[in-house]
Every structure is written in structure tokens, then in C-alpha cells.
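Catalogue entry: protein

Sequence with per-residue C-alpha cells
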Amino acid sequence: MIEVRAALVRGPVFLAGEALECLVTLRNPLPPDATSASSEMLAWASAQIHCQFHASESRVALPPPDTSRQDVQAESETVFVPNRGERGQCILSTPPKILFCDLRLDPGESKTYSYCETLPVDGPPSFRGQAVKYVYKLTIGCQRVNSPIQLLRVPFRVLVLHGLQDYQFPQDEAVAPSNPFLEDEEGAKKDSRLADLATELLMAATSRRSLHLYNISNSRGKVAAFGIFKTVYK
């Protein structure tokens, strides 16, 4: 028996366009009362992100499914289909990535693999309503030789902020002085800037809109009126 564990590095909530990183750990446990144990073999393992759409039939009228395009491979237990057995329709999926092939684990041995994928920017946000649901999941599939595929699903949430991807970061940040003794993690820097920008957009969209008007005048009288929606800025 092989234990498979998956852990999202940065938590279960992401922005559309961010990079999702997941650590997949496989372990061949050694029972404490076992006198002898054998090695375990896995043929392969893959990972893929998909979004499931589910609508309530009593609230939403959907067109009948097209049965003429039934996929024969999807019914096979030896083909990696991440949304097998899921309710609803798969409306978005990323290309599958192979984590390993021909893995051998001795008793008590474990190995960890990293899966990284950029979330699509054209997908819907996560939503759980009474009529419709959009659910994102990371599905990890592994298989032994001459055995059916076993699936492990990790749910997460995706937030979509319109206008976030159209923002152009200043070019002067690339020529700013940096510390030569620290590793330059450009991907982490970009994700942090993206998160900061998303925070600013959310604050601007959800903050209380109370207009403050200030009159600008001189010795001849009123020149103009200056208005702002908030008096405290980050």
C-alpha cells in the first residue's frame, strides 16, 4: 500500500493568473508490527486542474447532453480522466502533467514531487449557489501495473478580478538595485505584486463611498472644487 498526500504550498485561495504549486508526497508505510515488507511499484502519476459546472435541474433549464460524442476512453479505468465520477460538466481543464514514471519505493521510503501550473485567466470564479456551482479541483492520478487508476482530488478557490491582468507594472522595477547575496525569485516577486494590486482593487471596490469636497479659491473667488472618495490611502 502506498500513501499519497497533496499539500498546496500557498493555501487554498488563488487569483486567476497566479501560479498554483502543490507538493505531492508518496510513501510506502512500514507497519510497526510487520516482520517483513516488500517494495511497492507505481507505473506513473499525473496531475491536472479542472473546473466543474453543476446546475440545479429544478432551477436552470439546460440543453440535453450530446450523446453522439461519447468518449469511449473516458469509460476505461486505465485512462486518466480527472473528472470521472464528478457531477456536472467539465468546462475548463489544463494540460495534464506527468509527475513520474516507474517509481519504486522501499518499505518506509517516501518521495515528494512538485506540481506547478498557472491558473487560466479566462475561467469563471469559484461560486457555490443554489442554482449553479463552479468548483475548481486539482486531480492527481496514479496507477499500478494492471490495476485501475486511483484519483486524489484537492479542491481550491479561484478569485477573478476584472482589469487585474491588463495592469502594466512599472518598468523601472527591473533596473532597481538588488542585493547580490540574496536569490532573485522573479516568480515570487511577481506573485507578491499581483497580490498587492488585487488588494488595492478590492479595497477600492468595497470601500465606503463618501465623497469629500474641497473648494479651491484665491483672492478673486472660487476657482474649482476637488473631490475624493476617501481620505486615507496605503
